[in-house]
Write a structure and sequence with these properties.
45% of the residues lie in helices and 12% in strands. The protein is of the alpha/beta class and 331 residues long. The chain starts with 20 loop residues before the first helix and ends with a helix.
Length: 331
């Protein structure tokens, strides 16, 4: 985005001449190597899994997760075939790999058999705008604007199989049976293979109690997190789980899965559950929405935990990877 580069004399934005996935792949493999030579790059960093087969400089690639290997059934077939082919190739060719969590790094070492000294875990940070919003008018305004009745339980993210939202809907149904007045808000863009989520809502007769307000701009999310009685993220596998960190930074009580990277993001500041256990998730939800002291305790712990994650530290660590990769390439 152009404003990111305004006033930055050492940064230059090169816009890519395509929109389709196929053209992007062709450009990456054919035109990008030529661009690395023309620009006399020292390091090429691919932030999304794949590298060109030929490059005239050091290469770094970021792997956000290995879902295409760990839970391939949650992806569309063409993506599964493409990334299962390209990821191992990129891992072998790269001078350095960045994993966004220790969990993802462990998966890379285990599945791709990459040498340990080639893979560095660099966690994400959280933007300063993610902080508790205490202005009740602002909270009411965001809820009114998107048709969200309070009180509510919140999920933020794409609607797709790996996020395990059918289990969340079933757990929420048990909460309703216990007399909870809450609405379940599944905030995010529709992804793929999401029909089962809507079918489960209909099956359980929850049409009036589950809302799908769609995608929220980043600037709107702090108020949404702050207004929620609980934030729930029951993913089956996650390379990092940025919405969890954002929720912690906004003081939302967090319930999330006890698998993959999520325990290292939450630490002791949230409730961890087996994402496949409907009863355990329902019990955790019941505790959070009925126990004000527990909610306040989780909120305080979440604020402290979120401070451990910094984009400036992420940038410094990434720069160090560039420097090591360039040195390795020159040798």
């Amino acid at each position: 985005d152009a404003p990111l580069f305004e006033g930055k004399g050492r940064a230059r934005l090169v816009r890519l001449p395509f929109t389709s996935r196929l053209r992007r792949i062709v450009w990456e493999q054919v035109s990008l190597p030529r661009l690395t030579r023309q620009q006399r790059l020292d390091v090429l960093h691919s932030p999304h899994y794949t590298l060109p087969f030929a490059a005239s400089c050091a290469t770094v690639v970021t792997f956000h997760d290995l879902t295409f290997f760990v839970c391939p059934e949650t992806h569309l077939l063409y993506k599964r075939v493409f990334f299962q082919t390209m990821i191992p190739q990129s891992a072998r060719r790269a001078d350095a790999l960045i994993a966004i969590s220790q969990s993802t790094r462990a998966d890379i070492l285990r599945i791709l058999r990459t040498p340990p000294d080639k893979v560095v875990a660099i966690p994400y940070g959280v933007a300063p705008l993610f902080q508790p919003i205490t202005d009740t008018d602002a909270l009411d305004a965001i809820c009114r604007a998107r048709g969200i009745p309070r009180p509510f339980v919140l999920y933020v993210g794409n609607l797709e199989p790996r996020k395990n939202l059918t289990t969340l809907v079933r757990a929420f149904a048990r909460l309703v049976e216990r007399g909870a007045p809450h609405t379940l808000v599944l905030a995010g863009a529709r992804g793929w293979k999401d029909d089962e989520i809507f079918a489960t809502v209909r099956e359980l007769g929850l049409g009036a109690r589950v809302r799908f307000p769609g995608f929220f701009e980043q600037e709107q999310l702090p108020a949404l997190y702050s207004a929620a009685d609980a934030f729930v993220y029951p993913a089956l596998y996650e390379g990092f789980g940025l919405p969890v960190l954002e929720a912690l930074a906004c003081g939302a009580p967090v319930i999330t899965s006890n698998v993959s990277s999520l325990p290292e993001i939450v630490g002791d500041a949230g409730i961890l559950v087996n994402p496949r256990d409907v009863a355990e998730l329902a019990d955790a939800l019941h505790v959070v929405i009925t126990d004000r002291a527990r909610r306040e305790s989780l909120a305080r712990a979440g604020l402290a935990q979120a401070k451990r994650f910094s984009w400036s530290q992420c940038a410094r660590d990434t720069l160090a990877v560039y420097e090591r990769a360039a040195q390795k390439y020159r040798r």
